[in-house]
């Protein structure tokens, strides 16, 4: 698979995997990818946001967290959950590169230094629903979301129980 196709598929398809493959593709590509800004307030009432802060893709906690999320893309989509990976060098929202100022704003807002690992779940109302300083199982996050009144209403409206 050539790099252009790989990049296109990565950007079009929701991924909850390590951006290692994305970063490798970008570096080996002759095509430039435009970085986007990411504003948490623009997600309010639209999506839940799961922030994963880490020093780098080489961080042990980060790698473990991404493994725990692997194979759960549909569960993220079903719960209107946006995965934002805030790393020291490159950051991603649903697999798409976001600019450094957006990442810095997220670090400042939640008080997370570039050297620290943290997982933060932000609800559709913009409030912090959970914070973890160690990797957390996807199932635990999904169970917490599914217990929220807004999610209960969504499941009823979408015909899922």
From TrEMBL:
PANTHER family: COILED-COIL DOMAIN-CONTAINING 80-LIKE 2 (PTHR46792:SF1), COILED-COIL DOMAIN-CONTAINING PROTEIN 80 (PTHR46792). It holds the Pfam family DUF4174. The keyword Signal applies. It comes from Nostoc cf. commune SO-36. Residues 1-23 form the signal peptide. InterPro entries: DUF4174. Keywords: Signal. Residues 40-154 form the DUF4174 domain. The keyword Transferase does not apply. This is DUF4174 domain-containing protein.
């Amino acid at each position: 698979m050539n790099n252009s196709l790989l990049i296109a598929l990565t950007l079009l398809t929701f991924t909850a995997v390590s951006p290692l493959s994305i970063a490798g593709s970008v570096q080996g590509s002759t095509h430039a990818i435009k970085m986007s800004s990411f504003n948490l307030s623009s997600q309010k009432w639209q999506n839940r946001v799961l922030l994963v802060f880490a020093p780098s893709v080489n961080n042990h906690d980060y790698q473990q967290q991404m493994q725990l999320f692997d194979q759960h893309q549909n569960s993220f989509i079903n719960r209107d959950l946006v995965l934002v990976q805030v790393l020291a060098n490159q950051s991603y929202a649903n697999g798409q590169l976001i600019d450094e100022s957006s990442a810095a704003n997220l670090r400042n807002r939640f008080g997370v230094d570039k050297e620290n690992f943290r997982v933060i779940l932000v609800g559709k109302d913009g409030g912090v629903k959970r914070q973890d300083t160690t990797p957390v199982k996807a199932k635990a996050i999904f169970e917490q979301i599914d217990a929220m009144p807004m999610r209960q209403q969504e499941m009823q409206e979408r015909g899922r129980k």
